[in-house]
Design brief:
The complex is a heterodimer. Helix content of chain A is 80%, strand content 0%. By secondary structure, chain A is mostly helical. Chain A folds into two domains: 34 residues; 243 residues, MetI-like (MetI-like fold, Orthogonal Bundle). Chain A is globular. In chain A, 33% of the residues are buried. Chain B is α+β, with helices and mostly antiparallel strands. Helices cover 28% and strands 34% of the residues of chain B. In chain B, strands 6-7-8-3-9-10 form a six-stranded mixed beta sheet, sandwiched between helices. In chain B, strands 12-11-13-19-20 form a five-stranded antiparallel beta sheet. In chain B, helix 3 packs across helix 4 and helix 3 runs parallel beside helix 5. Chains A and B meet through helix 11, helix 12 and helix 16 of A and strand 6 and helix 5 of B.
Amino acid sequence: MAASIPWTIKHAAPGRSNHATKATTEPALVRWSLIAVAVVFLGAFLLLPLGVVFGSAFEKGFRFYINSLSEPDALAAIKLTLIATGIAVPMNLIFGVAAAWAIGKFDFIGKSVLITLIDLPFSVSPVVSGLIYVLLFGLQGLMGPWLIAHDIRIIFAVPGIVLATIFVTFPFVARELLPMMQAQGNDEEEAALTLGANGWQTFFRVTVPNVKWALLYGVILCNARAMGEFGAVSVVSGHIRGLTNTMPLHIEILYNDYQFVAAFAVASLLALLALLTLVVKGIVEWKTRQQLAEQATASGETRQ
Amino acid sequence: MSISVRDIRKDFGHFTALDGVSLEIPDGQLVALLGPSGSGKTTLLRIIAGLEFPDCGTVQFDGRDITERSARERRVGFVFQHYALFRHMTVFENIAFGLRVRPRKFRPSNGQIRTKVNELLRLIQLQNQAQRYPSQLSGGQRQRVALARALAVEPSVLLLDEPFGSLDAKVRMELRRWLRQLHDEVHITSVFVTHDQDEALEVSDRVAVMNEGRIEQVGSPEEVYNQPASPFVYNFLGNVNLFHGRVDDNRAYIHESATGNLVFVRPHLLDIDRQPGSPNSFRARTRHINSAGALVKIEAVTDWGAPVHIEMSQDRLRELQLVKDEVIFVIPKEVAVFRNNRLS
């Protein structure tokens, strides 16, 4: 802290600010060219495509846009995406909280194995993840004959899509919570215990409120990925229009049929979701950082 | 409520934290567990609280065996070293927590909770901070909130883990006097862990000195300070001069080789003479004289090169008119001799 004081004084002194900044930054030419590179890069790879998506979506007017979203196949795809996400996110929420709680607050044999397993979906290609389910539940798969005998359909049906989505998105919540829970330690839980709280009370009144922003952040990321997942879902879906197509799959079909405007119309929905996610994520990140900073100052003061 | 700990053993992997510890704590006393870090004092406290379970041995409250009971069932008040306040709750809610989590049948009404919490806030002199969050409080205030929170559930035993460990010197002094006063008022059986000998000697009724997972000595502060039972206790409590020596006919001969005896002398039990009159004296040369403070601290070196610390009053220093680099004769007034770690 002490080191920052002379700098603020220098900045505050009139006419001396240039001298102060010169010592710590690059020449103007370098600065501006670096900024230009960053802006061009952002524009070309992020803003331009985003503009193209919305531009193309509205190419044939607003009415056509609405029509392409409200035709039965598109509606079915939106509905299926919502169903898959609606199941995958709560499941991963429960799993993520439980896993992070177990890893962050307790010591047990096989802890590092569990951490590696949680990271598995990050390191495995989504297509491979999808194929795993086909090999497990498909017609020629391990459990295929048994499933057929009992008339249960998983592959090329909604359960397969939900399973693939859950698999691909399950690290998000746990990964966000883990560092937070590990940093906070067990002191507050132990305090709650000595004060007579039972396990559930400790969990809901002490553990969860302490990680709520990280939890929300994890849910947002998980949700965004669940809605946009393509690879794994594509393998298990079977692409049956109106039945097993999610939004990303529906977009691909439309695009392959040269229905560009309709494809972009549906794509714009996903892009909109992404933008919304970014805004919420920004707010939550800011809140989380605030909380971490508070914790840092709190523990810093106690160590004096 | 009295606490009785019998033959407790606790290992963490290859490290033995407690090695057969027994301790009796009578009802209503304030007992300090004193020892260096790694001596097992915190582990013992956590075992009494039920936050840790012993590998063998028993813990009894009022003669009832509660070794298998969880922390929740033991009704102990525990104050953590780093306070462990609930950071997302106000001071008021922190203190009220223990009452709010009670089963519906035993839960006091909101009004009763408010009365109780306000009473405790008065006790810790933080009435105006009820709506603040822990992060907005100073270390000393947090510590008091942690204490009030522990007292709110009317525990049968109060356990404090290094309660003043992370506070600065002045707040520490204030708080430990306050804790002593509080204990005189509420008379709850209390155990606190500390590595600070002054704290233990000033605050507690009894001190248990711990070292390497064992209790070295239990006694009143006067007992452990004036009659240390082992070289460790002698060394750990207060400053001390250590000589190696030999014992013959009830006389200790210091600075002799191949003996195996340890001779301890407290710095304030050494007198200085300018003449070699006394048969008990030995020669030394003054190195440094520090007269800032109530006592004058003198550093000297014996003829055989061992450092000696001497403490005397300012008056005595004026009488002697000592200066640096002078030959003096040191007379031990009282020594403690240990042979093979036993007092002899």
